[in-house]
């Protein structure tokens, strides 16, 4: 990818970033929860129950080939006194100290269910298994829990439920809607299982964890005008703010992006539109994905399950074709954990593994916006045992901007662009200066336009450019650059469009013709070329002050200076992995299932294929399969729907 005009040395930008670091750290907002989660013993609405919640303490499980050690000391506060863990029914001794963590991860142990990964899928699987009577061990490769889920919007798309004031959302509508956009890429049986299980999963999670959902009011489905679509929203459920103080020592052990600017740190405007804001400012509230993970973690800890961080699963152990355990590597060494009932792969996708990306994805994928731990470990472990694979060419695509010198954990960082391409007075063009997509449409299917393969010219739309004018920058800012901030060196700036074309390599005549036609059309509030502004979704991330949907996203590009920033295609995660049955059991290439092996979330073959129903379209199915797999692994039964 060609990215000119960038310089890492930029004092203005650095200052701006530093200032926004403080602002964005407000992702952890002080305030009190809008709804108090029920305490221990509160009424449960869980649809399925069997057995008592039973968690795993490594010190109490029968160890395999290792002598049982006495319990390690509880963590202490600065005063030396044991620190209370407010969300746990168990004594504080259940919360691990560094010493406990080291010794537990080196000891071989045996449990009913092992869960790998602590994103929304993994934590839901752990909760599902523990609540239904299994002893559970959870291993997380990163130093903190939560994965991509923790840095996400935390929204779950649950297409059929009865929480809307205007009546129940039907299974039939949800299925018609998903079919209308899937291009025949879905697993019909499993999609129906997803749609029918969603509401039960939400009830279960709310009954057994600190997570509370509310409808993200008005958030339209992503293709709301299709049959069964919801222009007025109702299917996207947002986690209510969660008070981190309830997590005790775990409050600082949830994955967070380095606090800085841009929509991957979720600015205040984005939070407000995700319904992730709080009115009261007196406690230690977190919102969005942090609230989802924190709430799930509270439930998992409450069930006595202590995730082990810095613990990477490297290999599945099998006996007679059945998976019976897993090899875990930590800084302290290697250990083997035996799983009596099953291992759940919830290790996310392979978006950070260049070899897997090149081997499987259908077109270019230039950068992931997730934390850099999802390297396809679960996929490789499953392949080694003959797993059948599905949805391997697909990702949760998103347009990205990459700023040279911008890194995360030493790797190049990508930032998704959403507000910037939706608000008035900006368009995206290719090298010929032509628009190639409705810039305000949902990010996932937009990848199709970047992946357009011209027989002569190759990927002619990739990379493209976002072109915007001085009014856009003055009014809205751009990707963390606030109105009035110095213009960073990674913008290409020019007094006229012809010069902008020369500087960027965009065909100047093509660009001039495109902008002139654009300005003519938007004066009449239409986009005859790509229909921008014609869908209810197009206005969602636009300028809220405008009276019409079209007005929220259409506006002329007519005021110098003009700016251009390269835009390309990336992903929030990948969708491919081992195929599963309705309970997350991994299928073998021979058509049978691999006994003892389960998968959930982005680690499994996504059931919705190319479809992306609405906000929450990845976490919704991920949590449903976490729930189903956890229950099946614990009980040997299937969640009835
Ligand atoms: C900025 C942003 C906003 C988003 N907003 C939304 C949204 O609002 N709604 C939505 O539906 N989707 C959203 N997404 C996408 C969504 O976050 C992910 O698709 C989803 O969270 C994936 O969940 P998961 O549990 O499958 O994987 P993850 O949350 O990525 O968790 C996988 C975990 O497995 C761990 N792991 C990996 N390998 C190993 C190993 N070998 N051993 C042990 N552990 C391992 C990883 O470290 C990680 O913690 C967003 C994504 C981003 C980046």
UniProtKB/TrEMBL annotation:
GO terms for molecular function: steroid dehydrogenase activity, acting on the CH-CH group of donors. Keywords: FAD, Flavoprotein, Oxidoreductase. Its cofactor is FAD. Residues 24-108 are annotated as: Disordered. The keyword Oxidoreductase applies. Residues 96-106 have a biased composition (Polar residues). Residues 112-618 form the FAD-dependent oxidoreductase 2 FAD-binding domain. Pfam families: FAD_binding_2. It comes from the Bacteria. GO terms for biological process: steroid metabolic process. Gene3D superfamilies: FAD/NAD(P)-binding domain. This is FAD-dependent oxidoreductase. It comes from Nocardia gamkensis.
